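Teaching assistant here, posting this on the class forum so everyone can see the example we discussed in section. The complex has two components, and the goal was to see what a joint structure prediction looks like when all of them are supplied at once.
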Amino acid sequence: MRGLLARRMKFHLLGAFLVSMGCATLYKFGIAEPRKQAYADFYRNYDPMKDFEAMKAAGVLESAPPK
Amino acid sequence: MLASRVFSLVGRRSISTSLCLGAHGHAGVVKAEEYTLPVYADRRDVPLPEVAFVRELSAQQRALKEKEKAAWSALSVEEKVELYRIKFNETYAEMNKGTNEWKTILGGVLFFLGLTGVILIWQKNFMYGPVPHTFTDEWVSAQTKRMLDMRVNPVQGITAQWDFDKNEWKK
């Protein structure tokens, strides 16, 4: 009957800390890091002029018709 | 100020009539109303409630209470339990015991979700008109081709899933 609040509070404080740190870690290594990697990989060998020519040829640019 | 004037007019009547009648009828002592007395309550954080659980004791229970005034080693186990039950309604174990209510709640929730599903299916079948022409397969595939031509979301989105060399979706 002693320390009812203290025991409950200790349990929940530890749990809350672990859950929130766990969520943050999972997000960082599951979502944020892969996203940064994907952008790095995409732009490493990106050639904008080649992309422009491809879009022009497909006919989606109104002021740069394929002709 | 006006409010206090009104109160003095009504002030004589603020004490309830029944209490006044009661006061005059019992030699000056007012009988306590039921709701003003302390009550018994089973609560985990209040281990010793203000009153005992059983208020009016039967003859048997009163005899037991008299026996309680003597040495407690003379009491049998059943008598001790009886004394406990006079004082308390539920033990802590009984108080903390869970119920099966969650099954009822879960069943109710799932039932109403199902009912909603039936209603939605009926609506799609009998009530709604046709969807717009922009949802047909031809339109959607032309739309997707245009998105790929425009290089929409090339890093992680739709264009990243398309293989331009083989002209098909990436595996």
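For the discussion questions: Chain A touches chain B through twelve residues (CB under 8 Å). Chain A is about 80% helix and 0% strand. Think about how each of these relates to the inputs above.
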